[in-house]
Amino acid sequence: MPVIALLAAIVVVGIEQTIEVKYGTTGIVGLLLLTIGIKAKSPAVSSAGAVVLALLVSGPAL
Fold this sequence. Notes:
Layout: H1 2-39, H2 43-58
């Protein structure tokens, strides 16, 4: 069980670092809002985080 938790933590940290390098502080804020919204079961907060991430990803196309 601790091995699975360790692997999950490594994956999460890796994803966060990738987003921070590619999208900067705004990407971290969007990911944080999305994560908090999911854990708190708050659709408004998770939707705000998803919108921030979607705007960052589609920004160059707009």
